[in-house]
Amino acid sequence: MQEIHDDSAAQMIPFLSGLVCGVAIGAGVALLLAPASGQKTRKRLQRAAGDLKETAGDRWDDVADDVRDRVEEVLEGARKRWR
User: Fold this and answer.
1) Torsion of the alpha carbons at 45, 31, 16 and 66, rounded to the nearest 10
2) Which pLDDT tens digit goes with each residue over 23-67?
3) Is 9 part of any domain?
C-alpha cells in the first residue's frame, strides 16, 4: 500500500511544476494583451519575472529537499536490511 502512495507523490511533482509554468505563461500573455502603456507593461513583466524566479527557486529547493529526504530513507532502509 505504501508503494502506491509513493508513486502518487512522485507524480505530483511534475504536475505542480507544469501548473506553475502554465500560470506564469498565462500571466505573461495576459500582461502583454492588457491595454496599458509600454512602460507600465514592462514594469509589470519585470515584477512577474522576479516573482516567477522566486517561485521557481522555492520550488527547486522543495524538490531538492524531497529528493534528499527520499535518498536518506532509502539509505536508512538499506542499512537496516544489512544489519
Assistant:
1) 10
2) 888 887 877 777 777 788 788 878 888 888 888 888 888 888 888
3) no
- Give the separation between CA 50 and CA 24, rounded to whole angstroms: 11
Domain region containing 49: 38-83
Q: What angle separates helix 38-82 from helix 2-33, to the nearest 10 degrees? A: 170
pTM for this prediction: 0.43
- Residue 82, SS3 per DSSP: helix
Q: What is the number of structural domains in the chain? A: 1
The values of phi and psi at residue 57, to 5°, are -65, -45
- Domain membership of residue 17 (yes or no) is no
User: What is the secondary structure of 13-39 as a DSSP string?
Assistant: HHHHHHHHHHHHHHHHHHHHHSS--HH
